[in-house]
Structure formats: C-alpha cells, structure tokens
C-alpha cells in the first residue's frame, strides 16, 4: 500500500499490506502531498501537492521521479487514474481536469454540473483485476521432526510461513522458519533434525565474536567467508559470529550469504531499511533457534546452544537497539531480555544498545538489563574514532568467561569483540587452558601470618564460588536461607503473578539490610546484604519456599517435599529390582538438583545431604544390595541407618526403635481444617500484634477483601456472594495466614505438645506406662477444653466429629499399660478413637509396627510407556501407589481420554492398577468446505480429503457476481474453520463503466466519462469526502467529514450502512482480493483496516499526518 503524509516531515511511503517492509519512497521537495493514485500496470505512483501546486509521479521503487504539471495558485486535492489518464480536482472548484498521465498534457476540463467535488475515484473493472495466486512446492516434515503452521502434503500460497521443530532428543540444522516468496521458492535452507550430540565429538564450543559490520557489502562478505573457512587465518575457527546492522532484506535470498561449514540464522529489520542481525554458527554445534523468545518489533536473535559434554544449554543472543529507539522500544527490549532470563539458562547476550558503558551515569540510568543481575564484560573502546564503548556483552556467569577482547580488523568503523566461554578447561589447549583457583591453607595456627591470611581472604575468588569443582574451596557457613539471590527471587515473584506495586514492596523489604560481626565485644563495620531472606521473620519461610517452588519441575523420578528447613527426595522400586533402580533414579535427580542450584546461584553442600535405604523388616532379605552409592558435584553422599524426618526418627527396617525409646505413652488429637473459618478482622488484629506495620496491614486487608463465591450445578450458576471469612486456598499466602491465625493456640495448651500445620493440628501427651491411660486422658481433656474455649473466642467452629484420637503404646509396652481406651469429648460430643492414623504422610498404628504404611509403600503399578516418536507427551511419574501421570497433545492434536491417570490399589493389595487407560492423540481435522454457486476455488495448502489443523483454503468469485463471507479460511485447533461461509450471487451493479465517482456536499455523483453526463448515486448525505469501491460486489464506500464515520452502500444508492464510527478519514482503499478496507485515521495518526462488513478492525501502522491511501494487492 502507498499513502501520503503531510506532517512536519512530509513524505510518500509504502509498505506491505500487513504494515511490514515500510519504506519512504519520496522525502524531499514536498509540502502538503494529499491525493494519491496508482498505475498498477506500469508500477507508477502519482500524487498532487497542494502546497507546491504540482502533480508528480515516481516508480514503485522510489526512482525516476517526474514533474508532470505545475501552476501557481492551484489547490489540487484529489487525483485518480484510469486508461492512461489522470483526473484531478481542485478544492471548491466545479470542474475536473483530464490529463495525460505520462506527459502532463491537459486534454479536457469536465464540468460537474455546478457541484464542488471533494474526492474522486475512477470506477472501472480493469482497476480491480483478480490477483494470481503464487504457490510454492511441498515442504515435507524433516525426519525425526515436524512442520508447524502449514501441513507438509501440498503446496502453499505466497507469504505462507512454515516453521519446523525436532522431536525430543534431536537438534535442528538449517532454517527453522521458511516463507513462500513471490517467485514461488522457499526462503532459507532445508531444515534437518539430527541426534542430540554433535556429529564430531572432538569439536568443543569455545568462542563468540560480535561485530557491527555497518552494511554487509560483497567485499566484506568475502573477507568474513575467508576468515570463517580458514582461508585467511587457519588458526582461527570461530564457533559463532554475530553481525549487527547487516542491512539485509527479503529481496536478497538467504542463500546468497551462506558460508561453507556454517549455518545461517537471520532477522531483518521490520518496516524500513537498515539494521538486521545475522548469526553464523559452526555446523558441528548443536543449536536451536528460539523463535518463541523473539518479537517482530525488537531486533533480537536468540540461539539455544548445546556445548560439548554439557547437559545444560546456553542461551546466546545478538541484540541491536537503534539510536532512534523511543521509550516504548526500550521497555519492550527489556521485557524481551527478561523473558529469556526466565528460561533459567546461562545467558550470553551480545548487545549494541548505543549506550556508552564507560559513561556510568548515562549507562546505568538508561539500561534496563541491570536489574537482571547480568554483568557487562566489555570495557574497551571498540570504535577507534570514538571514546565510547557501545558494544556490550552481558553474561549471567562472568566467572565462566575466559577471554573478552577487541580484534583489530578494519572492515568497519567498529572493531569485532571476541569472547570465549570456558568448558572442560582441563582438557582444552590454547587461551582457555586450565586456570587454578586461588586458595589458601593453614595447618599450624601457632605460626599463622595474620596479614597474609587477610590478604588471601581478600584475593580469594568468592564470586566464582558457584562454579568450583570441589566444595573444599568454599567456606561453608551459610544455610540455604542466606544464599537466595534477590534478583532471581524478584524475577520468580513476578513470574508467579506479583504485580509491579507489590514487587516494589518486596524489593524494598529485601534491600538496604546490613550485617556485622562481634567477637568478644569487638564489632566489625557493617556490610550490605545482597543475598538471603530474613530468618525469624514471617515472610522469610514464604520467600524461601517461593524461591525453591520450581525445583520439583526439574526432578523427574522422585517425589519432592519442600520445607522451610530442608528438602527431601523419595524414590521407590519393587524389591526384586534391588537398590540399582532406586540409585539410578535418585542420582539422576541429584544431578538435576545440582544443575538447578547452579542456575539459581545456590551453593549445594553435599556433606549435609544424607541418604537412607528403607526396606522394612519383611522385605530386607529380598532386596538385592544394601548400599546407595550417590554423589553430588563429585562428592559422595553419606548413607545413614536412621534419620529424623519431621520429628519422627525413621530407621531402615521401620522398627522405629530409636523413636520408641524416647516415647512412653502418646495420644494424638487432630483438629479439622479451618481455612474457610478464619475471621478477617481477628486475623488483621493478630498481624498487627505480630509487628506488621499499617502500610503492609492495608495490603493484607485489600488482599482479603472483595472476594466472591458462587455455585454451579449442571450449568446453572447462582448469584455471587461476598466472602467475609477464610483465606484463599491454593494461594501462596493462604497457609502462611492460617498458621499466623492459629499461632497463639499453643499458648492456651498447658499439658500437651502442639504441632500446627496448614492442614491440621495435633496434640501429643505422654506419661509413664505404670500410670495407665488416666494420666494422658486427663491432660488431653483439659487441653481439648482449652481448645474449645480458644475456638469460641476466635469465632472458629470446632467439628468434633472430625477429631480423632489414637493411643500409641508400642509392642513392648502394650501389656504394661493399664487400659486401652481414651474417653475424650469436645463440646459434649465424644471423640472417636482409632487404631491407626495417617500423620504427615506416615500411617501410624497403636503398636508402631507400621504394617499399614509398609503395605502401601511398595504397591506398584505396571510402568507406563508411550511411543517416543508419537505426538502424545507424558510427564515422568514413576509407578508407585498414588502416582499421578499427566498427558498432553501438541497443538493440532486432540486428546482422546483422560489427561490424568492415577496408580491405585483396590483393597490395599499388590499389584496396583491404573484407574484409566493411556489416552491417545487424534489429529485435528476440519470438514471439507463446499463451493458456492458463482464461486471459484483457488486451492488449499493440503489435499481435499484431509483438512488438517493449519490448512488454509482460498476462494474467489466469478466476474459479475457478488460475494459475502470469507475468501480465506483456516482450520483451527478445535476443528472449526475461521471466518464465515462464502455466498456468491449475481451482482447488483446497475451501471456500466468507465465512470468517475465524485463526492460533494450532500451526495455521491457518478459521471459518465463517455458523454460527460452525471447522476446522483446517493443523496441526503452530510459531507462525504474520501471514496473507493468494490467492483464485483457492487459496493461504494465513503468517509463523512461532518459525521466522522465511514459508510457503505450498493452502487444503486440503496442499503446505506455505517461500518465505522469516530473516524476522521481523508483516504480509503478497498483491497478487492481479500475483501479488506484500509483507511487513514488523521486524528489518531494511524492507518487501520477491517473487513468490508466493518469487523476485525485493527491498526496496521502509525504515522504522523496521513492523507490519502491506495493499495496494489498484486505486489503483496
């Protein structure tokens, strides 16, 4: 499309119909360009300038500008083209001039019967010829991969984009995105999927070079090609070369820039010339283009790299920020980098932000990425003619970078910046060979040199502690609470939905804290705290658990339990498999834990990790092996014979002998869950009593208020009802607020030990066996009465029917205890006594035999398997009792069956069974579309018998017919077609062409160009201005200056319809092929489009002062 802009910098611009590939074709010697028209056959643009009183032309490309006519005192307004002639009108003049379009000669002045034309448009069938459909050949899905967006069993139309992906365990080479071009060929290079590891295991990823090439000309390309292929410097073999400001565009195919033994990835600047990023990657590297991290408006190219013998991938990017970038661009760029940061990978970002890093005031004031805890590695001037450092390499792990330098190569004003990432350094040669860590060791404390000791402390590389191979090099003094990185914590809080206001509150809570040391009254200077959360605070455990909340996502084999004071992994297998099965599962998960710890900047202390092999008495003899050989970061994990877990000492045989020796007689009372019963006013009073200030108290009040609930039965929904009690279950704050509410309960319990949990409360009382049950019963009853009184004071409803009691004696003491029952009651209702009870996932019985628990512990179902090459995905879930397996299908497939199945054990007997069968993935298909009478089928990008998800079909209509509905239909993921059915009828067009349609005050007039006669098409209008039509549909469109709307009618003037309101449009253009209406919106400074019914309205692009507009769908 082409349009005029008469803003402060007047110009004639063009772009693709979707607003991309924007380019100003005329920018000089313009004052007030308004009317514009096209000679589509000869690809010429004509316009009138009523500030310079001229009529001019130029080719579509912007070349061969020609002055056709100039006369002082004229106020040209509209212009239209047909049959080699231009028709021009002046504002408020009652004639139209006819001019030879190629030599500027005026051949006729046509009177308009006393009317004053405002807008005009030639009405001729030759001006709206059908557009030929360009098709590209079939693109098949790669072996071990899939094609997305365009089914690979038929050709595709022009501008169709196909994307590719590889199956799990494979890496792609080539162009991950390919587009059908004007010439019927596909852009890019064939996409191939290969195995996960590089084809040549001897290739080790080492180096990245980033370079602002300032337009990749032929001589520059030849020099770069020689360098990469070793012809110029055989010793220089780069792994990745990133070029910015390449000035590449879609007119030059990617194949033009290919270099032997390197794959090419590129991103062109959208909308105008300049910019652009190219990345050359050594073909021996495993690499994946991350299209999901890219956006059209940001010049950023993201690559996921799998280095040699390294399981965790790197995320490497080339980023360019234009000097003309505005605030919105900077914000979007920061969000783009932040999204990549949230991918939890090691980041290496090559940026050219056009901020001077050496000018710290400017750099840190403007640069958003400093909040992501990335480190700038370049502090060298890379532009010899300048003193500014505009090239930035931001990394998440600076200690792993070996060399960052500037190479003196004179192909550009900028010098290339070289960086090397250290991998397997003890095996490498050259610049990245092994570097010993600084360390110190003192054995004789009598001869310690204080000054040298302090010097060693200062020089020790504490910042590199996260990549030490041996934990001996780290002085271990911290609990995990102290290791939480504030920046990562804030990023996770944002990812969990904390808005910017509350995020700032948490940032303030963590910032500006200090610590100091005190030895024998000598106090050190205070030191700022940049890591950790405050221990002993209410928010401390919550923030810690939030930080590690994503840990279970990387653990695939074990059950993970996170607590504020520790994390447990549990894995089980059938006894006949021996310890090897459990050991393999646990070791894989420990490796994942180590990787997660490194990514989250946590130090994992392997010496504090303990393992225990639990078999039970009966199964001990049947288990092959008795040891677990596990390690973390190369350090062996200690195996123990008993371990305390949640207050219970567990041993290998589940005898609980160590625990029983500390136990005399115990009875336990469990209270009901009460999340929904918490009184908000009492909770806020308690929060204030615990030290929450007024500001945060208001935050909690807002969090609890204005919540509603409703009921739904068989689709019938009740009216919403306000919630005045309870805390939100399933939320992060819910358990914390509940525990805060009941935190004072132990203060009223005088005889029992109280354990408060988010899902229940236990009372435990014990006495010597010789005293019988009476002593325990008396103590418990007194405390239950206190509990009832506390519940009434705190407006809690105590449900006595849900309270259970159990008398625990153990085997040896059972015969010595006088009595076997506990007669307890709450509010006059007897409390039920049970013989076994589940407590913290452990089923306890009276004699502590744990028989019921042990029977359930080793109940397994048959292992589930799926086709690894099929579309069905399954989360690794094991096969233990209670395990839930989740299934899903990719887009384009429909899940047939249950998405979750569970391993259950009917009657608590082995073996277990799955409660449902494994689901399947069905291909989503849409029904075959029917062809209407007078319609033309242009084809689909698949065959007609199987319309898969993503299939697009195109329709048109025969000349002389009228079409209503969608001419492009797409099969969606739910098996339905986009758009509406096409209906074609005989045209309503009552008059012959050629005509000239003219807008004037109150009406639209049709002027016959053969006999200069005219008649009104519509009347009783306000002030119609811009005009256009759809010939085959018999529609005419106009904008109304007074009513600020756009209207449509039939060519006979009937059925006038308002299709858009609140629009001050100076130009309209109908795209007759795809049934779209474009218009300029002068007040809102933009160009918009919709369909011809006024639906699907959207903004195409923004501009300063848009005037008239025309389109040529033949050019795309």
Automatic annotation (TrEMBL):
Cystine pairs: 166-193
Annotated keywords: Disulfide bond, Nucleotidyltransferase, RNA-directed DNA polymerase, Sushi, Transferase
GO molecular function, one term: RNA-directed DNA polymerase activity
Domain Sushi: from-to ranges: 134-195, 859-923
Cytoplasm in keyword set: no
Entry-linked InterPro entries: 6-blade_b-propeller_TolB-like, Cueball_EGF_LRP_Nidogen, LDLR_classB_rpt, RT_dom, Sushi/SCR/CCP_sf, Sushi_SCR_CCP_dom
Reverse transcriptase domain mapped to chain residues: 329-628
Residue stretches of each LDL-receptor class B repeat: 1-42
Full protein name: Putative RNA-directed DNA polymerase from transposon BS
């Amino acid at each position: 499309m082409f349009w005029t802009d008469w803003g402060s910098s007047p110009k004639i611009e063009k772009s693709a119909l979707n607003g991309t590939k924007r380019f100003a074709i005329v920018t000089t010697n313009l004052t007030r360009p308004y009317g514009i028209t096209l000679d589509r056959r000869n690809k010429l643009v004509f316009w009138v300038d009523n500030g310079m009183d001229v009529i001019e032309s130029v080719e579509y490309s912007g070349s061969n500008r020609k002055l056709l006519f100039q006369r002082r005192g004229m106020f040209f307004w509209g212009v239209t083209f047909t049959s080699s002639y231009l028709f021009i009108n002046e504002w408020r003049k009652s004639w139209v001039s006819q001019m030879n379009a190629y030599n500027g000669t005026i051949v006729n002045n046509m009177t308009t019967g006393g009317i004053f034309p405002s807008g005009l448009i030639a009405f001729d069938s030759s001006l709206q010829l059908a557009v030929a459909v360009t098709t590209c050949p079939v693109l098949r899905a790669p072996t071990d991969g899939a094609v997305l967006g365009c089914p690979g069993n038929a050709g595709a139309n022009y501008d169709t984009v196909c994307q590719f992906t590889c199956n799990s365990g494979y890496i792609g080479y080539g162009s991950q995105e390919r587009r059908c071009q004007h010439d019927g060929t596909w852009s890019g290079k064939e996409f191939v999927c290969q195995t996960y590891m590089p084809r040549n295991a001897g290739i080790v990823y080492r180096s990245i070079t980033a370079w602002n090439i300032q337009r990749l000309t032929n001589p520059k390309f030849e020099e770069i090609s020689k360098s990469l292929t070793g012809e110029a410097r055989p010793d220089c073999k780069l792994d990745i070369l990133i070029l910015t400001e390449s000035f590449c565009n879609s007119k030059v195919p990617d194949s033009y820039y290919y270099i032997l033994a390197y794959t090419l990835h590129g991103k062109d600047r959208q909308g105008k010339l300049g910019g652009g990023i190219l990345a050359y990657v050594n073909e021996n590297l495993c690499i994946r283009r991350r299209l999901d991290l890219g956006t059209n408006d940001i010049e950023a190219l993201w690559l996921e790299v799998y280095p040699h013998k390294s399981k965790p991938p790197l995320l490497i990017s080339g980023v360019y920020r234009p000097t003309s970038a505005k605030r919105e661009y900077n914000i979007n760029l920061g969000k783009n980098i932040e999204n990549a940061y949230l991918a939890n990978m090691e980041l290496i970002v090559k940026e050219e932000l056009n901020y001077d890093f050496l000018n710290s005031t400017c750099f840190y004031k403007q640069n958003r990425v400093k909040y992501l805890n990335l480190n700038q590695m370049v502090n060298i001037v890379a532009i010899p003619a300048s003193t500014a450092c505009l090239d930035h390499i931001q990394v998440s792990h600076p200690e792993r970078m070996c060399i960052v330098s500037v190479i003196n190569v004179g192909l550009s004003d900028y010098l290339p910046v070289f960086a090397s990432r250290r991998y397997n350094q003890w095996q490498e040669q050259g610049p990245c060979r092994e570097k010993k860590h600084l360390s110190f060791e003192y054995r004789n404390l009598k001869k310690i040199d204080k000054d040298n000791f302090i010097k060693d402390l200062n020089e020790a590389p504490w910042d590199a502690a996260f990549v030490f191979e041996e934990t001996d090099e780290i002085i271990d003094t911290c609990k995990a609470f102290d290791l939480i990185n504030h920046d990562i914590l804030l990023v996770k809080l944002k990812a969990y939905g904390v808005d910017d206001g509350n995020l700032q509150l948490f940032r303030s809570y963590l910032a500006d804290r200090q610590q100091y040391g005190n030895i024998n009254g000598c106090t050190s200077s205070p030191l700022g705290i940049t890591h950790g959360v405050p221990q002993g605070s209410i928010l401390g455990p919550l923030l810690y658990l939030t930080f590690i909340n994503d840990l279970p996502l990387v653990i695939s084999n074990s059950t993970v339990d996170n607590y504020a004071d520790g994390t447990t992994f549990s894995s089980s297998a059938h006894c006949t498999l021996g310890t090897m099965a459990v050991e393999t599962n646990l070791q894989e998960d420990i490796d994942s834990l180590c990787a997660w710890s490194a990514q989250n900047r946590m130090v994992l202390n392997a010496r504090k990790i303990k393992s225990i092999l639990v078999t039970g008495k009966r199964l001990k003899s049947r288990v092959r092996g008795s040891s677990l050989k596990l390690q973390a970061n190369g350090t062996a994990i200690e195996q123990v014979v008993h371990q305390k877990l949640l207050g219970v000492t567990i041993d290998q045989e589940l005898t609980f002998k160590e625990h029983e020796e500390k136990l005399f007689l115990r009875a336990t009372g469990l209270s009901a869950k009460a999340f929904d019963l918490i009184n908000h006013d009492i909770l806020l009073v308690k929060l204030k009593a615990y030290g929450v200030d007024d500001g945060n108290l208001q935050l909690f009040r807002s969090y609890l208020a204005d919540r509603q609930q409703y009921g739904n039965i068989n689709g019938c929904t009740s009216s919403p009802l306000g919630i005045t009690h309870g805390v939100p279950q399933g939320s992060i704050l819910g358990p914390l607020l509940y525990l805060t509410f009941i935190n004072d309960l132990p203060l009223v319990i005088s005889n029992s030990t109280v354990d408060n949990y988010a899902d229940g409360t236990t009372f435990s009382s014990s006495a010597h066996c010789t005293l019988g049950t009476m002593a325990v019963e008396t103590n418990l009853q007194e405390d239950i009465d206190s509990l009832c009184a506390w519940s009434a004071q705190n407006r809690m409803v105590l449900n006595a029917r849900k309270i259970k009691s159990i008398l625990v004696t153990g085997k040896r003491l059972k015969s010595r205890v006088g009595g076997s029952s506990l007669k307890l009651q709450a509010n006059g209702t007897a409390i039920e006594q049970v013989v076994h009870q589940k407590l913290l996932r452990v089923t306890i019985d009276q004699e502590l035999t744990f028989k019921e628990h042990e029977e359930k512990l080793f109940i397994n179902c048959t292992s589930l398997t799926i086709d690894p090459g099929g579309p069905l995905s399954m989360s690794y879930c094991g096969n233990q009792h209670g395990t839930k397996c989740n299934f899903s299908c990719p887009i384009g497939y429909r899940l047939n069956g249950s998405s979750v199945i569970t391993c259950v054990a009917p009657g608590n007997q082995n073996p277990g069974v799955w409660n449902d069968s494994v689901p399947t993935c069905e291909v989503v298909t849409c029904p075959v579309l029917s062809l209407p009478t007078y319609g033309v089928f242009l084809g689909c990008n698949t065959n007609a018998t199987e319309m898969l998800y993503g299939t697009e079909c195109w329709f048109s209509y025969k000349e002389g017919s009228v079409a209503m509905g969608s001419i492009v239909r797409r099969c969606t993921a739910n098996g339905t077609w986009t758009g509406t059915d096409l209906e074609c009828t005989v045209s309503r067009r009552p008059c012959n062409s050629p005509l000239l349609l003219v807008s004037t005050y109150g009406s639209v007039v049709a002027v016959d160009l053969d006999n200069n006669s005219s008649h009104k098409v519509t009347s009783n209008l306000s002030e119609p201005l811009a005009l256009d039509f759809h010939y085959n549909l018999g529609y005419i469109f106009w904008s109304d200056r007074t009513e600020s709307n756009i209207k449509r009618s039939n060519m006979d003037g009937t059925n006038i319809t308002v299709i858009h309101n609140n629009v001050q449009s100076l130009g309209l253009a109908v795209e007759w092929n795809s049934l779209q209406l474009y218009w300029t919106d002068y007040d809102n400074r933009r160009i918009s489009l919709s369909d011809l019914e006024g639906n699907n309205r959207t903004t195409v692009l923004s501009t300063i002062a848009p005037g008239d507009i025309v389109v040529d769908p033949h050019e795309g």
